[in-house]
Amino acid sequence: MPTAISVRSLQKTFARQIAIDGLSFEVDANEFVALVGPSGCGKSTTLRIVAGLERPSSGMVRASGETVDGPVRNAAMVFQAPVLLPWRRTLSNVLFAAEMRGKRPGAFRERAKELIVLTGLDGFEHNYPHELSGGMQQRVAICRALLLDPTLLLMDEPFGALDVMTREKMGFELQRIWSETKNTVLFVTHSITEAVLLSDKVIVMTPRPGRAKAVVPVDLARPRDVGTLKDPAFVELCAAVREAL
To answer: Using one digit for the tens of pLDDT, what is the confidence trace for 205-240?
Structure first.
């Protein structure tokens, strides 16, 4: 399997404080990888560096075989807040991704409609953000991220602001969407359960300055469902990640 993301000896310093120090890891193409660690260990900063939105102090990042020295063209990000335009309806918010890249929205209208159906938002195409629940708003954000068929999907605590039940449901939804799109996903989360449930492997980071402390492979059959949460193998994997933290 070709390598989609390669991070080598990454260091990031803010005002003389080292946030990330010697971080190295790899993500294979079409792999779903979770990044977990204590607050302030540099998870979100790592994601921004991989996306090319922030420069490292030293080290190297390669995405899709190219050295990252600016915004990665074939990557899309999903943040904790959906960041939807309140004056736009669902379909228009999804199509905004095309406008941001200087493309004609009309050329992506059918793709946007397909994604709306895929994420269970059909029937809500013409609703404004304030008419949608938090989970539905985040689905719109995921549609927007997937509109241009990115190779890399970078997700920074996308379900962190949701209640427990909605968060669990969105996790299963994301797994279903990923099984059809097969993007390479780097997923930042504070939830051990969420990380193990969704990913092919979990990268555990140390407290600041952030380094890769452990890599826990997740060899659980897919698709995963509520029953997976009771599987002894799942419980053991969660314990392994927790112990590494």
So the answer is: 999 999 999 999 999 999 999 999 999 999 999 999
Do residues 12 and 56 lie in contact, with contact meaning Cβ atoms separated by under 8 Å? yes
Average pLDDT over residues 128-144: 94
Domain definitions of the chain by residue range: 3-74+151-244, 82-149
| Strand-by-strand arrangement of the 17-28 sheet | 17-28, 3-14, 58-63, 66-67
Among the CATH numbers 3.40.640.10, 3.40.50.300, 3.40.50.700, 1.20.1090.10, which is that of 3-74+151-244?
3.40.50.300
* pLDDT over 90 at 1, yes or no: no
CB 113 within 8 A of CB 91: yes
